[in-house]
Amino acid sequence: MNTAIGILETKGLVGLVEATDAMAKAANVKILKRVSIGNAFVATIVQGDVGSVRAAVESGANAAQQVGELVASHVIPRPADSLVEAFCR
Q1: Contact assessment for residue 62 and residue 25, using Cβ atoms and an 8 Å cutoff
Q2: Distance (Å, rounded) from C-alpha 11 to C-alpha 14?
Q3: What pLDDT is attached to residue 81?
Q4: Neighbours of 85 (CB within 10 A)
């Protein structure tokens, strides 16, 4: 299967919650983890097929910009198994 992970980072929780909701509604992705980075920076990691993750992250980024501060978003197609284990479990 051609899987990917998507990461979306915001400054502030409200933007992240809005973005995560938009990602879940936009495409068939699984929300793997929420990460508290510190100093109000938070991130969500999602997983699914490459196309779904790209669509979800794009939708989430747009939503985060509407209500909060988007810091970064990124899609990693075919991540190494050890990467997923280290950061997402």
Answers
A1: no
A2: 9
A3: 84
A4: 10
The DSSP element (H or E) to which 49 belongs, if any, is strand 41-49
Contact yes or no for 22/63 (Cβ under 8 A) = yes
Query: Which tens digits make up the pLDDT trace of 14-62?
Result: 999 999 999 999 999 999 999 999 999 999 999 999 999 999 999 999 9
Task: Encode burial over 26-43: b for 16+ CB neighbours within 10 A, e otherwise.
Answer: bbebeebeeeeeeeebbb
Please give the model's pTM, rounded to 2 decimal places: 0.93
Per the CB < 8 A criterion, the answer to whether 58 and 50 are in contact is no
Determine the straight-line distance between the first and last CA of the chain, rounded to whole angstroms. 20
- Residues counted in the chain: 89
Question: What average pLDDT does the segment 58-76 reach?
Answer: 97
Token pair belonging to 38: 């510190």
